UniProtKB/TrEMBL annotation:
Enzymatic class: hydrolase
Enzyme Commission number(s) of this protein: 3.6.3.16
InterPro entries: ArsA/GET3_ATPase-like (IPR025723), ATPase_ArsA/GET3 (IPR016300), P-loop_NTPase (IPR027417)
Residues in ArsA/GET3 Anion-transporting ATPase-like domain copies: 18-290
Transmembrane segments: none
Listed name of the protein: Arsenical pump-driving ATPase
UniProt keyword annotation of Hydrolase present: yes
């Protein structure tokens, strides 16, 4: 049996050198709840915290007692401020963040020209990777403001956890000076060569282009790149700055997973990628782990006892059927626990140096600050 290296969140959040915590992993594993619980616990232990979520389901707003979240931090009331901490929360609006970049880095006339361009509108709303990139743009903005001593990021849900690390470089490569020069190169061979080069260059981004129909497509693209040309270098520079920020001391990645094969497989990929990119991994949080208060009652004993009750005896038939049903439910729960234990053992055997924290499966969904405090308490257990 592999010995678990325990992860204690309190040690991490109590360290003033910890300035950014990034919660990552595959979709549907509880990243948003974990990020919110870490932010709340840190604030109630004296940190000035902002939680940035990318969850469109708005669960974070509900659990923090806010009517809504938007692209600006909002103060969370009802937290214990005896230690001097404060908690704010926000939800990324990727188009508004992109618009803010345009407004902040272009003169007013050019900014309005860009914002009204159909190609830009499609790019800022639906380009693959835009959400992940804008999350990192917003992280950089929050860090630069210096109003908080801890930023907790709930990363976007994606089909692959690796998309989060790839997106800044991918979008930065798309929006860099070389791409600009390609699109603004003079037409050759009566325009036919230019058209072929353009088609080849933007073929990878057909999902965006397909959203823009009609004869104005080429004109819209040309107008867009001409207006945005002066800003393109900044995208790459900020992408590189973000990458350095993620690698720097003071940043901590927490991989969140459920005790399921696919989720733990994604977690393993992320652990390996973080190691390759020399990004600081704090540990793994396994969420919704099943537990029992009667571990000594095995599957076999439960099923044997259920059969005995149904075979007749001093117990009335109705009570016997009820007790037998409960014993069978317990047997199924023990099977689930055993399966989850094997999956966890497989992960810890492969990555024995990765600290692990477990959050039990709760009987109800987390929907308020008290629920987040419960999660935080489990995270703090070493």
């Amino acid at each position: 049996m592999t010995t678990i290296n325990p992860l204690s969140i309190d040690q991490l959040i109590d360290d003033p050198a910890t300035r950014i915590i990034v919660c990552c992993g595959s979709g549907g594993v509880g990243k948003t709840t974990t990020a919110a619980a870490i932010g709340l616990r840190a604030a109630e232990r004296g940190r000035h915290v902002v939680v940035l979520t990318i969850d469109p389901a708005r669960r974070l707003a509900q659990s923090m007692g806010l009517s809504k979240l938007d692209n600006s931090p909002r103060k969370v009331d009802g937290i214990d401020t005896d230690a001097g901490g404060e908690l704010q929360a926000m939800m990324l609006d990727m188009k508004r963040t992109f618009d803010e970049i345009v407004l902040n880095h272009a003169d007013p006339a050019r900014a309005q020209q860009i914002l009204a361009n159909p190609f830009y509108q499609a790019l800022s709303s639906s380009f693959a990777g835009t959400q992940e990139y804008m999350a990192m743009e917003k992280l950089g903005q929050l860090r630069a403001r210096g109003e908080w001593d801890l930023i907790v990021v709930d990363t976007p849900p994606s089909r692959s956890a690796l998309d989060f690390l790839d997106a800044p470089k991918r979008l930065g490569s798309f929006l860099d000076g070389r791409f600009i020069r390609l699109l603004t190169a003079p037409a050759k061979a009566g325009g036919r060569l230019y058209t072929r080069v353009l088609a080849a260059s933007v073929g990878l981004f057909s999902n965006v282009l397909n959203r823009i129909l009609g004869t104005q497509l080429l004109s819209d693209v040309q107008t867009f790149v001409a207006a945005l040309e002066s800003m393109f270098g900044g995208f790459r520079e900020r992408a590189e700055t973000t990458y350095r920020l993620l690698q720097a001391p003071g940043t901590a990645f927490i991989v969140v997973a459920a005790p399921e094969p696919d989720a733990l497989r994604e977690a393993a990929y992320f652990v390996e990628r973080l190691s390759q990119e020399q990004m600081p991994l704090a540990g793994l949080v396994v969420n919704r782990v099943h537990q029992t208060r009667a571990p000594q009652l095995s599957v076999e004993r439960s099923l044997t006892a259920a059969e005995s009750l149904l075979d007749g005896g001093p117990v009335p038939p109705e009570r016997a059927r009820l007790a037998a049903g409960l014993l069978r439910l317990h047997a199924e729960r023990m099977r689930v626990i055993a399966r989850e234990h094997r999956l966890r053992e497989r992960f810890t055997s492969a990555y024995p140096d990765v600290p692990v924290a477990e959050i039990p499966a709760l009987p109800v969904d987390v929907h308020d600050l008290d629920g987040l405090r419960v999660i935080g308490t489990y995270l703090a257990k070493a």
